[in-house]
Each structure stands twice: as structure tokens, then as C-alpha cells.
Amino acid sequence: MGPPDPPPPATVTQPPFITSLQASPGGVSQVSYWVGDWTIVVPVARLLEVVRHLRDAPEAAFDACSDVTVTDWPLRPERFDVIYCLYSTRHRHRVRVKVKAAENDPVPSVTEVWPGANWLEREVYDMFGVNITGHPDRRRILMPEDWQGFPQRKDYPLEGPGELLMENPVDWLKLRQAREEADIE
Amino acid sequence: MEAPAIHHGAMFDTNELVINMGPQHPSTHGVLRVVLRLDGEKVVDADVVIGYLHRGIEKLSENRNWTQIILLTDRMDYVAAATNNVGYCETVEKLMSLEVPRRARYVRTILCELQRIASHCLWVGTHAMDIGAMTVFLYAFRERELILDLFEEFCGARLTYNSMRIGGLPLDIPPGWDKKVLEFCTIMAAKLDEYEELLTHNRIWLERTKGIGVISGAEALALGLSGPPLRGSGILRDVRKDEPYAAYEEMDFDIPLGTAGDTYDRYLVRMEEFRQSLRIIRQATEGLPEGPIVGKVPRLIKPPAGETYHAIESPKGELGYFIVSDGKSTNPYRFRVRPPSFCNLQGLRRLCKGHLVADVVALIGSLDVVLGEVDR
User: Fold this and answer.
1) How far apart are CA B162 and CA B39, in angstroms?
2) ipTM surpassing 0.95, yes or no?
3) Smallest CA–CA separation between A60 and chain B, in Å?
């Protein structure tokens, strides 16, 4: 389960900012390279330390956080991949930082490093229910404030009757199955 | 007995006032709601509320096959549908390591730049109308109409084009279309001077835009701004130059930069972008190579397992797609859009602090947001 995250082939040279991150033990648990994109997997506990290093170290200089997003793998014990897409205007390079988190694991907010992550993290919370901690303004952003559930999770159905779903998704799934069977007949 | 102290300033009620602007407000460009906390007419704080147009395009896309999604991307930034198509198709091509023929890349460049002009036409019209200059709106929409005609001839639609396919183009350009594009470039170049005559040195325009919403380059970057709002603050950042896609590597063009980082500089940057876009269109149309328009695309599109992020420069800023394929099914496992309008709109709260209510309208226009893309 989860993306393959293949290691870089021997023919590709690793950018120096990854090498310098690897110098401190435990900072990077995996490095991967796929169709030209570098990804580093970082333990949640070290996330803030790593992203601060990536912003401040001269060889990295990631001054912009392009995107924060999540991939949901419900069958995995650590179901969420929280992904930070970083970009450096000085070196014009990109990297993706990935942390893995279980359903209620706290993931520290990176808004103090890049204030622009504010809304992106709100969306991550709104759509997936990732427990973002230390966020200045953690509210729902796209869904109504009183919405129950997190719509972009993989186990959240694509369509549903709203309130009934909020109370019990299983009931709705049964109802839908009954409807589909009725349609076939 | 001591006389009570008289506070001259306290004759009016100095309590802060909370007013609600939108979501049904003509100058919020759609369904944007801004809750303003005012001290007199000055904005103390603003809470930007979005989500009124949320259609769950990301979730929907995860349940459609790879080709069907192209149509959904049209509905995000609906005034620049072609750039959305290009961004999505290129991301899938990157994931599949597909080679796109040179002719298709050139046509994509032309379409992207026509789209940029159309989108900027809509921007200059509505932005100026919000501030009170009615005439520009009519002028700009007249020229936008010409672009819509060109698009209609190319793909049959005027707003939601569905004009790309993974691996290339759906159709070759119609005969004589390139001549019409060049004719349009000549017309547009002259019309741009008309717009500028109306606005650039207009005293009212200067009053309303100079020094409004000043933001430094470093702050704009940290706030996640991209596209013209970032370049208006003097940061050289354009995906077309930094990470070239389509045929931009072979084009010769400049990136206009502002210095002051205010609404006026963002206006100037976009006005110059019009001209640079015309320059790109001319080069691409005149140098349009012959050859196939679709690469070697497998009949069943099913990218290998993996994930990628690919960004293009949409008229609003950096439009990124993050797509995960599990390699087994015919739909993406995860489909994520990094909408430029969403990230730019985030800066509104910072920009409008300390300005007047009327300036909030100017600032929303200056960020050039499309709510279809903000809410997806």
C-alpha cells in the first residue's frame, strides 16, 4: 500500500541539500526519485526541524511552499501521506517533503516557516481531517463549518444524501445498494 | 468641583463595526465573502470566507478516468480553460514519460498565450469597472470576443474548451487559422494602447491604485503569492522561464517586473504581459513546425504507479497538479490541484489591512481571482 517511492537510480546525482540533510541522523528516512521529482520522507517528529533547514540552508533556500496536500491510504496503519511541495526561487529547484501520519497523529503546522501554508493546511484539515497542530486558524475552509466527516478520504462515498450520511455512513451504503439492486430489476 | 474632561474625538461612536461583503456582491468576482472589521472606513481586519462554489472536483476526478478529467479541469478557472487543460495533460504525460510532438507543443503555446490575453482582458475590464472606469470593460470584452472566436474555430467551444488530449491535441488547427491569429495580434497590439491611454496616466486611476496594498517581494513569496501579484513586487518568478513547458524554451520573451508592489504595479505587470504574450504568439505561429499532433499514446491510458507534481504558469499564477497513480486502475488515485487563485486570495487579508473599504474592491480585482478555481 502506498506509492512505490523508488530510490534514485545510480545515474542521477543527488542534489546537495539532500546530502546535507542526511548528515544529521534520523532526519531523512527515505529518499526517492521519480520522473524527475525528488521526494524525501521525514519522520513527523523532525518535520519542523527539516523544513527550517530547507528554508534557511544556502544550498537549499526553499523560500516558497507551493503546495501542501495529502494522499490517503486507508489500509495502511499510518494512513496519511502529508506532502509539502517546496520551491526555491534562488536555485529554481523543487523538492517534496513527505511525512506519514496515522489518523489522530499530530502533524505540526509549517505556517511559522511559510505563512502561505495557512490556507493549504486548513484545506488539508477540512478535506482529510489530518490533526494539524499549532495552526493559527484551524477551521474548515471549503466545507460548511458544521459538516461532519472529511470528504476527500478514500472511505468517504462519492455521493450521498448529506444528513443521513453524517449520522451513519453504513446505513447510506446499504440504502444505495438496495437502490442499485432495485434499478437492475 | 472639577469640570469633566472633554474628549473631542469621542463625539462619534468609535466602536469597531463588522460588515459583511458578499457572497453576492458584484465586485467580488463570483461568490467570495469578506467579513470586514472596520474602524470608521478603515479596514482593521478581514476574514475571507470561501467555499460557496465547492463542487469537489478533486474527489470527482478520482472517480473518473484519465481522459474524462480534462473536461473537469475546464470548470476550475473557467476564464482560462485552455491553460488548465495544458497543465493537466502535461502532468499525465510526465507521469507516463510521453513525448509530445513539436507541433502540438507549439499549438499549446499559442493557445496558452491567447488564453492569457483573454483572461487578462477580462481582468482589466472588471478591475477597472470595480474602480469606476466603465469604458475599459466594453473595450476589453470586444477584444476578448475575437479570442473566443478563434477558440471556437479551433475546438468548437467558447468557454469550456476541452481543447487538449493526453499526448497532444484533439485536432489539427483549421486551415487559415494561423493567419487569423496573426491578424488578431496586429489588432490587439493597437487596442492595448487604447486601454493604456484610458488608464495608465489617468489621474483617478493613479489615485485609486498607487500605494494601495503594498507588499514586499519577500513577504509576497512567503505568503504564497504567485504570478503577476508576485512579479508586481519585483520577484523574478515565472514558470514559463524557470521550468519551461510546452514550447516556451524556444520562445524569446521578457518577464515584466514591478518595483513598488502596489496595485498599480500589478496593473503595469499585466499590461506588459499582454504585449509579451503577443510576442510569443507571433513567434510560435510564424515558426509553427509541420508534423504529427499526437505522440505515441497507448490506447488505454494507465500511468505506472508513482506520483508527480507539475506546474505551469496560468494567467493567475502557478497552477500545479499533483497526481498519484496506483498503476492498477484507470483513474488517478489522488488528484490534487494547486490553484493559483486560492493561494493568491490568501494574501487579501494582509493586503487590505489599513485601507479603505473601497480599496478592498480594488485589491480583489488586483489579485485577479476566479472563484471557480478557488473553491474547485
Assistant:
1) 47
2) no
3) 15
